[in-house]
Each structure stands twice: as C-alpha cells, then as structure tokens.
Amino acid sequence: xxxxxxxxxxxxxxAALDEALGLIAADGEARFSLRALADxxxxxxxxxxxxxxxxxxxxAAVAARGFxxxxxGLAAASEPxxxxxxxxxxxxxxxxxxxxxxxxxxxxxNATPSLRAAVDRVIAVALAVLATPDADEDTRRREVMRxxxxxxxxxxxxxxxxxxxxxxxDFIDEVLRIAGLVPPQEKAP
Amino acid sequence: xxxxxxxxxxxxxxAALDEALGLIAADGEARFSLRALADxxxxxxxxxxxxxxxxxxxxAAVAARGFxxxxxGLAAASEPxxxxxxxxxxxxxxxxxxxxxxxxxxxxxNATPSLRAAVDRVIAVALAVLATPDADEDTRRREVMRxxxxxxxxxxxxxxxxxxxxxxxDFIDEVLRIAGLVPPQEKAP
DNA sequence: GCTCAATGTATCCAGTGGATACATATCGAT
DNA sequence: ATCGATATGTATCCACTGGATACATTGAGC
Lengths: 189, 189
Fold this sequence. Notes:
The first copy, chain A, is mostly helical.
C-alpha cells in the first residue's frame, strides 16, 4: 500500500487528493488541470479517471477535505467571536480551496458522502458554539445562519473587490464589529 | 450605426454584450464560450477581440451591465426590507449573472471604468436606503455592510447547497427574519 | 499457479482561448 | 472626389483541456 516503484502507483487516489489540494488551496481551480496534476504525480492523466469520475468529482473530493479541515479548525472555538475569526482566517488563508468549497453548485454535495458528512460536521460545530443551548430549533438555526451568512458574505464581497482591502486582522475585526460580537471600542480576540 | 449588411456588423460590441448577458444570465460563465457567442452573432470568433481584450474583459463588461441593472432594481426600494428583498430577487433571478458579478476576483473592477461606476452606484443606493441619515460615516458604512454581507452570504450558501432549498419567497422571508428586518411573526413585504 | 478485476498507458477527439497575418470597409484630411 | 490610415472582420494556426476507447500490466483471491 506504500508508494511503489514501477507501474502501479500504490495509492494514487490519496496522493492525487493531497496534490490537488495543494495546487488549488491558494490559486483556485480555474488554472488547475487534470493533466498538470497527473504530470506532478508522474502518471498518465487518464489514470486519474480510475479514481474520480471526472474533474467535478475530484473537486468535490477536494471540497470535502476542505470542509473537514475547516471543521477541525472551528472545533477549537469556544464562543461566537473566536468561531467567526477562525472561519474567516481559514477562508482567507486558503482562498482557492474556500472557493472550491462554496462557489460550486455541488449537486455533488449529496452525491459525495464524504462531502455531505464534512459539511454536516461544520454545521454541528457551529450549532454547538453559536446557538443558545435552550432555544427552540428555529431560533438556533437562525443564530447559526446569521453568523455564517455574515462571515461568508463578508469573505465573498472582500474577494470580489467590493470592500476596501485591509489586513487580515483588520478584516476580521471589522466583521466581528458588524456582527455585533465586539463592543464598539473593544479589542477583538 | 444600425446593424449593417455585409462585412461590418455595425455595433458588434453592444450586440455581443447583449447576447453574452443573455447566455450567461441563467447558466453562468462556465459553459459560455467566445466561439459560441461569435457563432450566434454570425461573426468570426476572433472579431470579438477587436472590442474586448480577452474573455475576462468581456465578462467584466457583462458584470458592469449586471451591476447597472441591479442598481436600477434597488433604486425603487424605500426601506431595508424591500431593498434586501429586491437584492435577493435579482441574485436568484439571474444566478449566472450574479455569479459573474461577484465570484470573480475582478482585478478588472478598477480596470473597467463602467464596472467601477456601476458598483459605486449600487453602494450609493445602499447607503441612501440602509444607513441612518445622521450617523457618522463608519456607522453608516457598517449598517450597509451588515445587510449586504447577510444577503450575499445567504445567496452564496443557498447556491452552494448548504441551506435547505425553499421557494424564493420563503428564502427571502427567512433572510429578512435572520437580518432582523421582520418582527418574529409578521408577514414579509 | 492462474485468472480476472483493478489500475495505468497510449492515442485519439472536439472544443477552447489566444496569436499572427491578411482582407475589407470607414472616415477624415486634402 | 480620392486616398490612405485606421478600425473592424476573417482565415488559419497553436497549445492545452477534459474526456473516450483500446490496450498493457499487475497483484489479490481462488
């Protein structure tokens, strides 16, 4: 099962995912090609099709990995402000990956179990950190969505160039203020 | 200047923009090609390059048209709730166009004057409708951004499949509630 | 050991954005 | 009016992409 010598790669699926994630994390998927990926792995581009139905399926798998990493990062948060900060930091740290995770109409989302599972994990963490424990379900869901929508919207508008560019720290600080999670003149976490 | 007979088209730039907007509005830019566009206009695909530097520039022009239309649509709003509803309706009505407007790193945004101008018009309308008239500038900006981020985030999460699918009306209603623009049990505009 | 499904390779295809070279038309200066 | 510069459109090429089909190699289970 370890990386083997000649004909068979050993674990192409995992290696391809790792490599693809690395290629996409910063630069996004627009300039990403199956052939470039295959070249880096020292393999014919067609070999990838033994593990992923098509380019879209590979991207869905990459997105799943992204959501899993995101959930890990968020799990450490203990309150809304740190949650939001961690979320924004992830999205701004791996812009290409975040785009693949959120800017595709993943019909895939229900067709790819790992993706569905990873997204559900993020939602579970969000509920635990962001929602009032004893509120009814609709309220809890809306509490989560309010923060998530604000964070996701802020990130999107920033990336699209609609906002003044700031340092990451200032950006996070501003989002926290807009979300009402930081009292007017206080310092953000 | 009207559509001419033989060799010269007459006003290829405008015709191309119209046609591109039509092709992209619903389906987005992923499956959009310069060649398909040129075919529809009865012209060699290379002719388009006389009017647009490259594919990206054409998309920037399409985005500019989109923002102009959006600003028109928002101008009729008189209060935050109707503004937000109009915004969401636009984004959900022309998903492909909205994606081109917001999901590209328009370095273009400052390189394309018409795009910059159209975005500024949207921001101006938003300030007029969403901000407290006599508040200081930072507050006004944040009031606008809170609504814009919520709307944009909601649209993005919905499109990505992170939310339960609902009818457009229900979706708008839910966003208004989350934004705190509709009292708990009241009917949305 | 042998077989056969899993995995990789070789090669082809149509479609894409873009470049270069050339054809045709329009318009302003004379 | 005409003539030449310039804008506009065409013809043709290129490298590259995702995907399809046919074949080679391999190793796991019988």
